[in-house]
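# nightly structure sweep
# worker-07 picked up a monomer target from the shared queue
# config: single-sequence mode, recycle default, output format = structure tokens
# input follows
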Amino acid sequence: MSEVIKVPGIGEGEGEVIEILVKVGDKVEAEQSLVTLESDKASMEIPSPRSGVIKSIKVKLGDSLKEGDELIEFEAESGQPAADSQPVDEAEEAAEPENETGEDAPEQPQEAQKPAKKEATVKEIKIPGIGSGKAKIIEILVSKGDSVEAEQSLLVLESDKASMEIPAPFAGVIESIEAELEQDVETGDLIMRMRVEGGAEDKPASSQTPDKPEQAETGNEKTPEPAQPQDQGAEKKQERPSPPPVGGPSRSGKKVHAGPAVRKLAREFGVELADVPGSGPRERVLKEDVQSHVQTAMKQGRQGATQAAGGAGIPPVPEIDFSRFGEIEIKDMTRLQQIGATNIHRSWLNVPHVTQFDLADISELEAFRKGQKEVAEKVGVKLTVLPFLLKACAHLLREQPNFNVSLAPNGKQLVHKNYVHIGFAVDTPDGLMVPVIRDVDKKSLLQLAAEAAELAEKARNKKLGADGMQGACFTISSLGHIGGTYFTPIVNAPEVAILGVSRASMQPVWDGKAFQPRLMLPLSLSYDHRAINGAAAALFTKRLGDLLGDIRSMLL
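# output follows
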């Protein structure tokens, strides 16, 4: 059976159609929202009285509707009683005189003026008619001691289908607030007490019910005003102060257009609605706007797009105008520098770093290296300390497999690798690059020397592809050609360790009888403490020192 859904009771005003939530042919369930209306004081969703199929939509976006206007025609499912879609008839509640004496009121002007001479009184403000259900207080817009004007919004309520502002019925000063945030209230509940000057009680707000003067003493003046003669209603409209902007205010005080469901979603995400740009009519905030805002914030947090978000919530570095102190020049970072900075920042923030320092005696290794200089030159390579470090570290990654792992994304598993690929840092004019040598444990010292030289040259000439810098299990960063003693290299996540090597120097070493001059190599091993403990790191650097001290031990 076909029936027409009409606008339910929304008072004497009009509401604008800001959202149509269904289309012709849609099957809807009972209580499913069909249309969203927005009036001066509330936004509300009009629900379907029962399940059925939409036959036609009689309104369009932007239409202004009043109580009783037709909204939607739909075919109700069989076996369901028809709804009484007729609007509430308020004609019988037409305007009555301002007091129960009716026409005698003008004949008693002195008595009518007596209340105006009273001293200030404290009046109660209660929840006006909001139907049979309850609503939650989601915002309180005033504080104790505030002076408010008539019609000024005091708090915001939210029910299942609407959010609404409760206005002050008269001007005065807030004496006390009897309600709390998140409190459920219903019609007639006390929410505030207000101190009003004498005579204010004879000037109730336009939302009072004139045919119930006894409510002036209880403060429950917010029952919808009955219909009045046209000329009298026009007069009251002129005297009534202009309503506040539509939409519930945010905590920052900015008015925001949003429905109850959107406000609930924003509270669940912890989003301040004032920060969300609205894409709906009249800049209304939709669910999609809140979801997009949250996604953008999460993406910025992951990528470190801003200093504040990238620093995991730490305060950003303050901006300084350096030109105040002297002449400056601003140059763009290279793309490689920008990528490197992002990767290093991410690793530093995500990896709990610990660095183990040690010294390796490479006196015998250096003598062997120099002795093989001619052999290396015959095959066209230069034998440096790096191939020895690569070979020794590959040997240790096989010997101590807990270093040849990566932490799984769930943080509860370790990914063990059955291959040994090692990266080595190369300083280029455009920034730091880390070429990767694959299967280091299967290659000779001369092969490693040749491949390292070739990859380093490609890196400096910008010929090293992305594949040549991926898949490393471990990284070596050597500053021996520059100098220094120790430093703290940053783990190149998802690896769990990196070896820093500084310049070797001759140092006196006690052999039990006398001090002997030995060539000592400073080692700095940084590691991810989630995957590696301190004892394992100390054992690693000790074993590395033993292997470098006598390279023949790697043959055992």
